[in-house]
Structure formats: C-alpha cells, structure tokens
Amino acid sequence: MAGLLSVSINVADLPKEKFVQGKKGTYYNFTISVNDDTNQFGQNVSLFDSQTKEEREAKKAKTYIGNGKVVWTDGKMTTVVREDAPQEAAPAADSGDLPF
C-alpha cells in the first residue's frame, strides 16, 4: 500500500530502556495500527510500543504511545515479507482471508 500517515507522540512517555543503539543512530520500535473507523477527533491510526515475542506470549498489555490519521492512500494493501525470515505460503491477495 502506498500511503501517508500523520502521527504525534509524546517522546517523554517513551520508556528509555526500549531505545536500541544501532550502527547509524538510536532507534525506537513502534507498532502502528490503522483502523477502518475514526474516533471523535477524526483519527484512525494508533501507535503502540512494539512488544517482544515473550511479551506477546505473556499477553502483556500494549503500551499506547500516540495517534494520528491516514492522510493519503492509493487504496491498496500489501504484506511485506522480511528477506531474512523463512518464507511461508501467502494467501491469495483477493481471498478475503484474515491473517489471524
């Protein structure tokens, strides 16, 4: 999907222990959720602190970080496969099956 999202976060709320030092700088990993419906402020994007596999398996509550809205899209949604991840058979794009 080609799209533009506009989001706002309060960086003071980011847990400092989750910052990751990389080769080219300091990073923070987010999970972004795009919803079909908007809230009372016209927003349909939510930002959460990315969880580790262990946090997800322990059903730890997500940490909400910020919100925003989709400001442009070409109307197409695609799934990206990491190059270093084992490849699985992907469902057909028009099958209507949800990945969960």
Q: Would you identify the regions where 5 or more consecutive residues have pLDDT less than 50?
A: none
Sketch the topology as an H/E string, one letter per element.
EEEEEHE
Shape: globular
* Number of separate helices: 1
Q: Total number of β-strand segments?
A: 6
Separation of the first and last Cα atoms: 20 Å
* Assembly classification: single chain
**Sheet with the most strands: spatial strand order:** 1-6-5-4
Query: How many domains?
Result: 1
Structural class: mainly beta
Radius of gyration: 16 Å
Task: Tell me the fraction of residues in β-strands, as a range.
Answer: 25-35%
Fraction of residues in H or I helices: under 10%
How do you describe this structure in short?
By secondary structure, the protein is mainly beta. It has one helix and six strands; from the N terminus they run E-E-E-E-E-H-E.
Written overview of the protein:
The protein has 100 residues and is mainly β. It has one domain. 5% of the residues lie in helices and 33% in strands. The protein contains one helix and six strands, in the order βββββαβ. It has one helix spanning 53-57, and strands at residues 3-9, 20-22, 25-27, 30-34, 45-49, 64-73. The strands form two sheets. The protein has a four-stranded antiparallel sheet with strand order 1-6-5-4, with no helix packed on it. Strand 2 and strand 3 form a beta hairpin. The longest helix is centred in the middle third of the chain and has 5 residues, at 53-57. It starts with a strand and ends in a 27-residue tail after the last strand.
